[in-house]
Amino acid sequence: MQDSDDLISVLTQDHHDLQQLRTELDYLTEFDGLRRSLVVLMVAETVRHSVAEETYVYPVIRARLPQGPALVDHEVTAHRRIERIMRSLSRPDLTSSEITSLLAELDAAALRHARAEEEELFPLLADHVSEDELVVLGRQALEAKEKAAIRRSLAEPGCPMRSEHIASGGTLVDRVRAYLRADAYPL
């Protein structure tokens, strides 16, 4: 478990972990194969994080916060923008410079999204949801995160996310979403 198991801490740590992964990608410009593998991991982890927010945060925001539905719609739009960039980034025919350009675009969109959540949305959530409930939700999110185990799954030789369907590139985001919805974050 983390230092704090409340939902806000769990998701904020995810933001930091994803930013660290993105930073690591900046240093791999000379190692194309490794860089592409790390891009696949980053896409999978980003989708896992988005699904966690959609499963544990957005229903609470929609139900409890003033203007909750509008806030959720805004956040979902940000997720879709990020996923659109990741779909482009997952194409197998990209040049190194195209990857660099898309990573910069992704970084800007993800940073805006994370800052908006951490500076605006999460404080509102903390004001409208009890600490005990945030801890319960955070522990549920951590359990689901463990079940999702994207890194472990991607390392397995027969991993369905590494199959020929994924190698085509365009469906990585959708396949990770489907995998998570079936196993870790069932509706």
Overall strand count: 0
The main β sheet shows up as: none
What is the 3D form? elongated
Amount of beta strand: under 5%
H/E element string? HHHHHHHH
Please give the CATH class.
Answer: Mainly Alpha
CATH topology: Four Helix Bundle (Hemerythrin (Met), subunit A)
Identify low-pLDDT runs.
161-170
Mean pLDDT, all residues: 80
The helix count comes to 8
- The helix fraction, in percent, is over 70%
Give the CA-CA distance, first to last residue. Answer: 24 Å
CATH architecture tag = Up-down Bundle
InterPro entries: Hemerythrin-like
Organism: Actinoallomurus spadix
Protein name: Hemerythrin domain-containing protein
Index terms:
8 helices; about 190 residues; about 80% helix; mainly alpha; Four Helix Bundle (Hemerythrin (Met), subunit A); elongated
Describe this entry's structure for a reader.
By secondary structure, this protein is an all-alpha fold. It has a single domain (7-183), classed as nmb1532 protein domain like (Four Helix Bundle (Hemerythrin (Met), subunit A), Up-down Bundle). The chain has helices spanning 7-26, 32-64, 68-89, 96-128, 131-148, 150-155, 164-167, 172-183. The chain is elongated and about 50 Å long. The two termini are 24 Å apart.
Topology:
Layout: H1 7-26, H2 32-64, H3 68-89, H4 96-128, H5 131-148, H6 150-155, H7 164-167, H8 172-183
Helix pairs in contact: 1-2, 1-4, 1-5, 2-3, 2-5, 2-8, 3-4
InterPro entries: Hemerythrin-like (IPR012312)
Domain Hemerythrin-like: 7-125
Protein name: Hemerythrin domain-containing protein
